[in-house]
C-alpha cells in the first residue's frame, strides 16, 4: 500500500543503511591483529553482538554513560570468552574501535540503490542514537552523505530515540511535518514506536523476522521500501 502525501523520509543509520555488524567485525579484526591478541574473531563477535545490543538498550534508557558502554561491552565480552585483559588494554581497544569503525564503508544490500531512487522524489534525513563524532564519518566514508538534507543525532538533541524530543528536533531542523514524513528503522521501540507516537508514518526493517506484536508496515529487505513509497 503506497503512502500518500509523503514529502520527507527519515532513516536510522546503523543496522538500517550502514552495515554495522560487518564493519564492526572488520574493525575488531584490525585491532586484534594490531594488538596481537590471541582471539578468534568469530567467537568474539558471537558473544559481543548480544552484549553490545543490551548495552545500547541501557544507553538509550540513560542507564549507562557513553564511556561505560564503550568499556562494559568489551569487558563482558572478554569475560564471557575467559580472555584476560586489563582495564588499560580494554580502554585502548575501546578508543581504537571508535577510530577504526568508520574506516569501513560497507552498506546493507540495496542501500545506495534505494537512496538514489528516493532522493529524486523526497527530502531524505537521518535520525540516529549513534555517537556524534563517528556518525558523520560513517556517512561520508560510505558515500551516502550527499543524499541527506539533515542529520539529527541524540547527542545534538540531548535525548535518545524513542524520546519525542529527538523527533521534534529532527522535524524542526528539516522544516518537515510528521504527517508528511516516514521513519524507516530496524529498532521496533526506538525507531518505529517512537516515531509513530509522534505522528510519523513508519516502516519497520526486520530482516531477521524477529517475532513481536505490532501493527506497523514491515519489510525484510530495503528494496521493499518501494512498495510503500
Automatic annotation (TrEMBL):
MF annotations from Gene Ontology: 5'-nucleotidase activity
InterPro entries, A to Z: HAD-like_sf (IPR036412), HAD-SF_hydro_IA (IPR006439), HAD-SF_hydro_IA_YjjG/PynA (IPR011951), HAD_2 (IPR041492), HAD_sf (IPR023214), PGP-like_dom2 (IPR023198), Pyrimidine_5'-ntase_YjjG (IPR052550)
Listed Gene3D superfamilies: HAD superfamily/HAD-like (3.40.50.1000), Putative phosphatase, domain 2 (1.10.150.240)
Protein name, per record: YjjG family noncanonical pyrimidine nucleotidase
Protein species of origin: Christiangramia oceanisediminis
